[in-house]
Structures are given as C-alpha cells and as structure tokens.
Amino acid sequence: MVTQTLSYRFTLMDHQGRPLVRYPWMPGHSFVKAYMKGLHCLWRLLNESSVEDTDNVARVLRNPVSAASRVMEVVSTAGEIRMGIVVGTGLTAVTMDDHALETQIINGTGAGQLLYQPTVVNAVVEAGANSSTLITRGFTNNSGATVTIFEAGIYFRWTDDGGTLRYFCMVRDKLGGGQDVPVLDGTTVNVDYLITISA
User: Fold this and answer.
1) Which residues sit opposite 198 in a β-bridge?
2) Total structural domains in the chain?
3) pLDDT of residue 176
4) What is the pTM of this model?
5) How much of the chain is in helix, strand and coil states, percent to nearest 5?
6) Rounded to whole angstroms, what are the CA distances from 130 to 7, 124, 126, 133, 191?
7) Is the pLDDT confidence value at 2 over 80?
8) Where are the alpha helices (DSSP H) in the chain?
9) What is the Cα–Cα distance from 37 to 147, expressed in whole angstroms?
10) Is 121 helix (H, G, I), strand (E, B) or coil?
C-alpha cells in the first residue's frame, strides 16, 4: 500500500550561516481541506467550487487545462507572504477547515516581523521504496528582539474562475512537543517541509 507522509524541521542559523540549533524532524498531520479540493480539481479537470482562500472567501478553482491557469504554485520570491512556507504565532489546534495560519508573521524588520526568503521546491529524490521532495524557506530576524514561531504552514496559488490569482492554505501545523521556535535577533531560521510517498 502506498502511503503519504509529511514532516517538518527548523534549523536556527547565525549571521554567518552556521547552525546554532537543529530541531528534530516532527511529524505533520496538517494537510487541510483546500489541498484535497485542489487535488480533486486536478484529477477531474473541472472547476472546483466553494474553496476558502486565505482571506476566508469562497472561491472557484479554475479548471487546470484552461488557458493561462496557474495551478497549486508554491515556489515564491523573497518578501512574498501570500504563498510558499509561512510562519506565525497562533496557538489554536489545527482543524481540517483551517483556511490560513491563525496569526501570520508579516515580512519586515519591525517588531514581531521576519524577513521572508524565497521558497524553494527541491528535486524529487528516490531511495528504495520512498520518493520525496523537500520544500524549504529561510526567515531572517532583523527586528531587534526575539520573535517566537508557534505555527507554520504552506500556502499555494491558483487561478480562480474569473482569471484572478488567489491564495489558499495547503498545510497548517501548530508546533507540537513544546517545540516553539525562538528566532533570536540577527539570526535566520530555515523551515523545511518533507513530503514522502512510500510503497
């Protein structure tokens, strides 16, 4: 039987890119409703209705074979907070109906903010019965004080039925096992998500 698993990891780096703290890999149980609706749209090649975006507005995912459609995009540029890996300070438990992080940390250098680096989706790696891909993003703290992360997730972009790009939540994790992550001023935290299928 083929299974799919999700795990995440945080690594705190100093200003010279040297590891300060390596947190262990943690299991993610956090795919939310919009992810499944996106897969359903891909498999049926038809519009998918009633999908809440990150602003909690119901949208229609456009048929992926329509002209100029953008479909489940995760790769993001520096400073882009609407897609890719995202982090926040929310403490509420994850539910299937989550449409966004509870309290997303904003890009910037002000109090409580972090500088978002690009989100990178690495090549698929095959090893024995496993096939996996690593999604990674760095967050730099130049705010002048410690910023603590309590939740993380992945947002994706999809064109709606009116041709407008919309943003949706694929994954949300409330950090478990007491693993909140304090990001010291002047340091960077790298967040990795590993998606694996196993035969």
Assistant:
1) 3, 130
2) 1
3) 73
4) 0.95
5) 5, 50, 45
6) 14, 10, 6, 10, 22
7) no
8) 33-44
9) 33
10) strand
